[in-house]
Amino acid sequence: MAVPYGLAAPIATSLVAGGPVTIIWGWVAVSLLTFPLACSLGEICAKYPTSAGAYYWCFKLASPRNRLLFSWINGWLTMVGVWTISLSVTFGTAQLVVAGVGIYLPGWNVQPWHTYLIFLAVTGITVIFCVFGNRILPTLDLISAYWTLLGVIVILICVSVKAATGRRPPAFALGHFDPTPSGWTPGWAFFIGLLPAYTYSAIGMIASMAEEVHNPRYELPRAIVWSIPIGFITGIFFLVPLMFTLPDIATLLSVASGQPLGVMFELIMGSKGGGFGLWFIIFGIGMFCAISISCAAARATWAFARDKAIPFHKTFAKVNQTLGGGVPMNAILLSTTIQVLLALIYLGSSAAFNAFVGVAVMCLGSSYAMPVAISLLANRRKDMTSSPFYLGRVGTPLNAIAIIWVMFEMVLFSMPAVIPTTKITMNYASVVFVGFAAFSAVWYFLSGRFHYTGPPEESEEPSTPSQDEEQRIDDAVPKEEKGGN
């Protein structure tokens, strides 16, 4: 989840939308509202512990008449979601680079094309690791885990001890709320500032681990559900010290690049070197996350091509066996090309990052809500009674809250951060979302309904290598990498 990065990258939007109250209590609200979705996904995943995830669940839960269409819709939601969440991380990391440079070059007049070129460089690095670093990805994830844990501890200690700009009273750190910069009414501004919700947007991808763990019916639901409280606690340890040492908000919002993280750390630490050190921790988390999520997006692209659901599926389903045991090279290129093209939005809109985050949350959230909605509304949860993680009587309210929260998220993440809007500050998330929806619908009528037969039937009791060694060899590339991501 890369919690510190997920909370730091959109911090400007949260400051605009109210400041400490939006940041702290918004994180509490997001965690509480996402927990029912995690429980609902855990229940379904326990019954269908397969690496295909949500679009396989839709196929199994929907009626025979609708299962192909529902799984197609869900698959495309997942596909667009992983492309845009990968883009949001790589682009957000590029903006972090700009913030880091700004520590030492505060007078740098950053142009949109500067940021775009940095984004291309970050994307290039992730592609290199996806293509040539196949075998070291699990090691990178292990390093990333330690980097994140130690980084949060270092930031907590450093900002708490140094506090060069002074210490804020609890009334400010936990109760200051000024939505004036956003132009929205106070209540709505609070919700607009919940952009860090995208930290939890990929919890459903834990299902990809189904082939990599022992007893997935037990382990996967626990992993999905516990990711919320663990992420919440990590976020609290990261955010609370920052709010008690927060510099002047107007100064942070006046940063020319629009990303105040570097200046914020510099002011808190009282030196450029100290600020750069803390900035580098967040930058490292962003790079680790960018590599992992880019690899995951490429593998998801490969899987959907294998299922004959995207144009030129034969080409993008090919695997290059000469690169580190097998790499879906064409799928990597497709996923990267789509992200590079979407990032061009930034040349015309300064709110492009919000749009990328918005599309990712809308697509992945709705892809997770679909099987929950089918189970609750169409099947009255009868399919879930045999789940090893059966929620019992609380299942219905938890499912309902999960669906309503995702629907509300889709509205929130379509909204601009500030009003009145211009073509530069407009949030184009809804445009991108509708555009991909239209493309997937057209492609379904042109090709999908003739060739798409649904996700491959996977055993609900995942096999071990000794039981199905030949199949594991054939599928080694995507499944191995899903384990590594």
Automatic annotation (TrEMBL):
Gene Ontology biological-process annotations: amino acid transport
- PROSITE patterns registered for this protein in UniProt: AMINO_ACID_PERMEASE_1
InterPro entries, alphabetized = AA/rel_permease1, Amino_acid_permease_CS
Task: Note the coiled coil stretches, chain numbering.
Answer: none
Q: Where are the transmembrane segments?
A: 24-46, 67-93, 113-133, 145-164, 184-203, 223-244, 276-302, 323-347, 353-378, 390-408, 428-446
Compositionally biased, Acidic residues: which spans?
457-468
- Supply one GO CC term from the record: membrane
- Tell me where in or outside the cell this protein is found: Membrane
**GO MF term list:** transmembrane transporter activity
Q: Does the keyword Transmembrane apply?
A: yes
Q: Where is it chiefly localized?
A: membrane
Q: Where is this region: Disordered?
A: 454-485
**Biased composition, Basic and acidic residues: where in the chain?**
469-485
Key words of the record = Membrane, Transmembrane, Transmembrane helix, Transport
- How is it placed in the membrane, per its record? Multi-pass membrane protein
Q: Which Gene3D superfamilies match?
A: Amino acid/polyamine transporter I
Top-level lineage group = Eukaryota
Keyword match Transmembrane: yes
Q: Give the protein's recorded name.
A: Amino acid transporter
Please report the organism this UniProt entry assigns to the protein: Favolaschia claudopus
The root-end lineage is: Eukaryota, Fungi, Dikarya, Basidiomycota, Agaricomycotina
